Amino acid sequence: MRTSAMEPRESGRYVKEVLMSRPEVTEFISAGEIEGVMDPEGYIGTAVEQVEGKKALILEKETLVREDFIMRIFLILLLLVLISGCIASEPDEETLIEEDISMDAISISSDVFENGGMLSSEYTCDGSDVSPGLSWNGIPEGTQSIALIVDDPDAPGKTWVHWVIYNIPPNTTRLPVAVPKNKTLDDGSLQGKNDFGRIGYNGPCPPPGKVHRYFFKVYALDTTLSLKGGAPKSQLETAMSGHILAKGEMIGKYGR
């Protein structure tokens, strides 16, 4: 082999022509084992390329190749650490809520659907799209406010939020049918923004296909939240964390 003048040797990388008639080179290329072929001057083969119309062996100083390999490993490990840190710092929203819940449970019921039963179209986008009536009991002592979230974990792409309402007075035991879609209700309760981008309740509106489940979740809190009206579910869950005394839920279903 002879040295090409395309790159100076001082750069730590240079080109040598490959003499295909030499058995050791032919065997090296056919096996595809670029790394590990070293010339007497301490340069190691890293690639085979077309250079000036000829097949050529690209060589680099062995120390540079090793340093590059070590740097790549370091960057991969750093990336893994950063990813794991992000995962650890962003707990699943349901985990965030569940870790605050005591053994107390709230019992929820409705006059318009049974737990696990089908919702009437009256309470969906196919009907009047008004909220169903709900009742609950089992609110523990020390409760300062009540919150409600309604969402659909079967929605494509993400859990879809249908209703967010909070700072419900602690002595409240029911919500009537067709709660007004206002940020502030007459009793001081506040309603947040759902995933339709609207205030208050918007009911099931699933794509055609399988039946979806709609979780109606009531939380008893040991504080009145400082949130303003119009807060989304994510802000409500963050504000509730560490303040949940009890929780109850029921499921309604709907399909099209």
List the helices and strands and how they pair.
Elements: E1 13-17, H1 23-31, E2 43-51, E3 54-61, H2 62-89, H3 93-98, E4 107-109, E5 117-118, E6 134-137, E7 145-152, E8 160-168, E9 174-175, E10 190-191, E11 212-221, H4 233-240, E12 244-254
Parallel strand pairs: 5-12
Antiparallel strand pairs: 1-3, 2-3, 4-6, 6-9, 7-8, 7-11, 8-10, 11-12
Describe this structure in words.
The chain is α+β, with helices and mostly antiparallel strands. It folds into 2 domains: 90 residues, no CATH class; 162 residues, PEBP-like (Phosphatidylethanolamine-binding Protein), CATH 3.90.280. The chain contains 4 helices and 12 strands; from the N terminus they run βαββααββββββββαβ. The strands form 3 sheets. A 6-stranded mixed β-sheet has the order 5-12-11-7-8-10, with helices on one face. It has a 3-stranded antiparallel β-sheet with strand order 1-3-2. Strand 2 and strand 3 form a beta hairpin. The N terminus is likely disordered.
Number of helices: 4
- The shape is elongated
Q: Mean pLDDT, rounded to whole units?
A: 79
Low-confidence stretches: 1-41, 61-65, 87-96, 99-103
Overall structural domain count: 2
Strand order of the largest sheet: 5-12-11-7-8-10
Instruction: Return the CATH topology of the largest domain.
Output: Phosphatidylethanolamine-binding Protein
Radius of gyration: 33 Å
Q: How much of the sequence is in beta strands?
A: 25-35%
Note the quaternary state here.
single chain
What is the name of the CATH class of the largest domain? Alpha Beta
How many strands? 12
Q: What can be said about the biggest beta sheet?
A: 6 strands, mixed
**Helix/strand order:** EHEEHHEEEEEEEEHE
